[in-house]
Design goal:
The protein is an all-alpha fold and 167 residues long. It is 57% helix and 0% strand. The protein is globular and about 60 Å long.
Length: 167
């Protein structure tokens, strides 16, 4: 357990009952039942992630991390083949250690800060933790290739990432 006290998702603003969360899970086809605090956290995290535009893989991995760090047991659904979840755990543990070291702050506020950190990691920095599972193949003209080769980066993948960052 990462916290002295046991916290429910209400600490971060969840106003949904277990029944409402279960109905949401059923509607999106996520097949687990809310039976304890870890599954409650996983359900709320799925809801929160989907409400904020996460795709199914990112939402499910986010739910796993929330159930692990706030519920005490990770509810996994096989997203580790798409996302480097071990690395995410280490990043969260580092942040958690920094957050816990803050003096004169309640544990409740630290829980909220940790949730915000995890959410921001999945919102902003997730590409650092994703495996390259997609392939892109296309034909371009010689002049387009010349422009592409002038982009910053050593490899075509680096150049493509530079191009994406321009958007």
């Amino acid at each position: 357990m990462f916290w002295k006290n046991k916290y429910q998702p209400t600490i971060i603003g969840c106003e949904l009952s277990d029944e409402e969360l279960q109905q949401f899970l059923n509607e999106i086809g996520v097949g687990f039942q809310i039976i304890d605090n870890p599954t409650r956290w996983a359900a709320y995290a799925q809801y929160h992630a989907r409400e904020n535009g996460f795709d199914i893989i990112r939402a499910t991995s986010f739910a796993y991390m929330c159930s692990l760090f706030f519920g005490g047991m990770g509810i996994s659904a096989g997203t580790e083949m798409y996302i480097k979840e071990e690395q995410i755990k280490y990043a969260i543990i580092d942040a958690l250690n920094n957050i816990k070291s803050i003096k004169d702050m309640s544990e409740e506020k630290k829980v909220k800060m940790t949730f915000e950190f995890i959410f921001n990691l999945y919102s902003v920095d997730i590409s650092q933790y994703e495996y390259a599972t997609e392939r892109l193949s296309l034909r371009i003209t010689p002049s387009e290739m010349k422009k592409f080769q002038s982009l910053e980066g050593k490899t075509n993948k680096d150049k493509f990432k530079s191009l994406l960052n321009m958007i």
